[in-house]
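Priority: medium. Attachment 1 of 2:
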């Protein structure tokens, strides 16, 4: 691949050296990894943090008086503090470890929502929600008799807010919405919509799965009650996620799972609850991966989230410019890179997305094809499946060009 030509504020070549997997080949071609919305790659620093934990101080947390247990507890809690600082939370007690975004949203649906949402209440979502921020609310609506309402989409893949005042109204009890769409790439005006929800007394949940890894996020600025995201999409290990809950909201919430660690005192017939956030972390937590996520946050902080965003905007602009010129392709989502994240979504009526994905794979290019856990959105767009490329801090402008070139060749290859 040609030498990097970025006039970037970040040194992509140096970053790439930290990611062992990026030097591998696929079918004899250099790997071009453009499936970051599904999961990101991991730098050596994160992989080492996991090895150091298992080789050096593996022990359960919050339970032992021995040195290893105290060391692992300290590193585990340091990681929690790193997450809190990363999203500008006031206190680490607002950070609950989960497995992933999906579990975080389900936790809110199974606890807070059961207490606060009643028959006739309304839950407002958008028409671009990932299944993880749709299906749990369908269940809440079925259980409680609440009604789901949806903010519709404009033609350019942004939200159509013409009727926002009737959709977010005094019956609204929760606004649960995605920050950056994993299909359209749209970055939603979450802060403005959170303010509208607040004005009618509703709670606010943000699905940060595609937002937190790619731009600075400040929970106080957004004024949300809940923010859920996944470690594996932000250079961290799989199996570790985060649910931020505003402190005063969390204090009033009933526990999610019950058992060891989340209790203060237990009798044969009853129990009392531990302090926050342990009250929401029953059983032995995912210690190693929480520490690994802490290392991922150190890595991102050292680069700077503003720099990550700026770099990805440059990559996305290059991709959009190139894609617009390929007339066989339909391109979804806003054209303005200020309104979108690192994701581009395309469809060609001439080539099935899976054929396109297989062709690109043979070129060493990893992209995602299918419905991206957005089936209702795909129906709305009128396509059964699409091709999606998503970028991260280690991708180069040359890789975008490799993608564009391969797409053109695929279109010629499959031409009717
Ligand atoms: N989207 C994608 O390829 P989990 O699987 O729990 O870590 O994240 C769920 C999730 C929730 N919301 C959004 C906006 C997401 O993008 C995702 C995960 C991946 O698009 C896997 S389907």
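Attachment 2 of 2:
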């Amino acid at each position: 691949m040609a030498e990097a030509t970025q006039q970037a504020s970040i040194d992509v070549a140096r970053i790439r050296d930290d990611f062992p997997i990026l030097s591998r080949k696929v079918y004899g071609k250099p790997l071009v990894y453009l499936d970051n919305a599904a999961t990101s790659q991991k730098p050596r620093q994160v992989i080492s943090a996991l090895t150091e934990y298992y080789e050096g101080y593996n022990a359960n947390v919050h339970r032992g008086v021995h040195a290893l247990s105290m060391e692992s507890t300290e590193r585990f809690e340091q990681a929690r503090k790193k997450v809190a600082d990363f999203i500008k939370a006031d206190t680490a007690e607002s950070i609950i470890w989960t497995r992933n975004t999906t579990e975080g949203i389900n936790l809110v649906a199974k606890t807070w929502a059961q207490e606060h949402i009643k028959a006739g209440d309304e839950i407002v979502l958008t028409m671009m929600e990932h299944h993880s921020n749709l299906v749990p609310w369908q269940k809440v609506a079925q259980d409680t008799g609440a009604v789901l309402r949806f903010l519709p989409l404009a033609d350019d893949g942004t939200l159509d807010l013409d009727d926002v005042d009737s959709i977010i109204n005094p019956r609204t009890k929760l606004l649960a919405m995605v920050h950056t769409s994993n299909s359209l790439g749209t970055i939603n005006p979450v802060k403005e919509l959170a303010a509208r929800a607040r004005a009618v007394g509703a709670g606010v949940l943000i699905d940060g799965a595609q937002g937190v890894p790619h731009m600075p996020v400040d929970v106080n600025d957004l004024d949300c009650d809940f923010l859920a995201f996944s470690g594996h999409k932000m250079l961290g290990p799989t199996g570790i996620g985060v649910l931020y809950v505003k402190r005063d909201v969390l204090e009033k919430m009933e526990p999610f799972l019950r058992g060891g660690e989340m209790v203060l005192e237990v009798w044969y017939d009853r129990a009392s609850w531990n302090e926050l956030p342990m009250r929401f972390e029953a059983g032995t937590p995912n210690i190693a991966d929480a520490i690994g996520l802490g290392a991922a946050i150190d890595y991102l902080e050292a680069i700077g989230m503003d720099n990550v965003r700026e770099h990805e905007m440059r990559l996305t602009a290059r991709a959009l410019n190139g894609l617009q010129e390929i007339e066989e392709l339909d391109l979804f989502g806003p054209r303005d890179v200020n309104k979108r994240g690192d994701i581009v979504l395309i469809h060609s009526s001439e080539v099935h997305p899976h054929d396109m994905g297989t062709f690109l794979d043979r070129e060493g290019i990893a992209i995602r094809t299918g419905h991206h856990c957005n089936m209702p959105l795909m129906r709305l767009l009128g396509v059964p499946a699409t091709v999606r490329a998503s970028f991260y801090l280690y991708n180069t402008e040359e890789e975008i060009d490799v993608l564009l070139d391969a797409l053109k060749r695929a279109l010629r290859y499959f031409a009717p």
